[in-house]
Design brief:
Blueprint: E1 2-10, E2 15-23, E3 44-48, H1 57-61, H2 64-67, E4 74-78, H3 94-109, E5 120-125, H4 127-138, E6 145-149, H5 159-165, H6 168-175, H7 188-193, E7 202-208, H8 214-226, E8 231-236, H9 242-263
Parallel strand pairs: 3-4, 3-5, 5-6, 6-7, 7-8
Antiparallel strand pairs: 1-2, 2-4
């Protein structure tokens, strides 16, 4: 595998943005295992960080590079600050960046990446789980599968919990006044029950049994099941911690492989 760090300029954000990238590379080693390097139509996973993280956190806290070594997939890990993958009230358009500009830039810089929906995925933890689920609900034409790990997936139901994490002014700066949340693109309970897209992504949602955000995942999964979404829901021992995410990203990768095999 090749591991790259790219500093790119975002016209949408009007600033430099850093992304970490894992790409398949063909290697022949005298010691250790060889690896295959695909040169075209490479499946891609957009892997999103949580609050307090950045582009480097998945690579530093998990063994993601080792986990994808034999899978011949690319992993794109962008830095998106604390904006919750949203076009904020203070004119920082992180949703437009992550859903439109970033894929365009990645295909420009790394032309071996696939352009096929059935080989394109997004996943994330906590805030990144929110961002991944949003991509699946609002852009299903782009993603075959979406994985949300330990995600804060409900806004209105978790408002008081959110206000304990950061001051109310922070959340209003991102999502707007609380009275507008319920019918916005950021309220997934509303988006699921009013879903009007022709296509639907497949979803993998997981959360630790000791995680305070478990109820948030359960609320969203229940609604998805009632509205005929293809959703896999798993729980396991663990809290809101990297030990859980390092274990479960491996399960997410296996789930992705199954989707691609079914599409062939």
């Amino acid at each position: 595998m090749a591991f790259l760090q790219a500093n790119i300029y975002s016209n949408t954000l009007g600033m430099e943005v850093t992304i970490d990238v894992i790409l398949p590379q063909q290697t022949y080693k005298k010691f250790g295992s060889n690896s295959v390097g695909a040169t075209e139509d490479v499946p891609v996973l957009y892997l999103l960080h949580g609050m307090g993280g950045n582009h480097s956190v998945w690579h530093r806290r998990t063994s993601i590079e080792r986990y994808v070594k034999d899978l011949e997939i690319a992993v794109i890990m962008p830095s998106t600050d604390l904006a919750w993958y949203t076009d904020t009230q203070y004119d920082m358009k992180y949703w437009t960046f992550i859903s439109e500009e970033l894929p365009q830039l990645c295909h420009e810089l790394f032309p071996q990446l696939t352009t096929k929906r059935e080989k394109t995925f997004a996943a994330g933890l906590s805030m990144g789980g929110f961002g991944a689920l949003k991509l699946g609900l609002l852009c299903p034409e782009k993603f075959a599968g979406i994985a949300a790990m330990s995600g804060m997936l409900t806004l209105v139901e978790a408002k008081e919990q959110l206000f304990q994490v950061r001051d109310a002014s922070y959340w209003r700066g991102i999502f707007g006044p609380e009275e507008t949340w319920r019918t916005s693109e950021n309220d997934f309970t509303y988006q699921i029950t009013h879903y009007q897209k022709e296509q639907k992504s497949k979803f993998f949602i997981c959360c630790g049994t000791e995680d305070e955000l478990l109820l948030s995942s359960q609320i969203v999964v229940d609604l998805m099941q009632k509205n005929d979404f293809d959703v896999t829901f798993k729980t396991g021992p663990g809290a809101h911690e990297w030990q859980f995410w390092d274990t479960w990203i491996q399960k997410v990768l296996s789930w992705m492989q199954e989707i691609m095999q079914q599409a062939n």
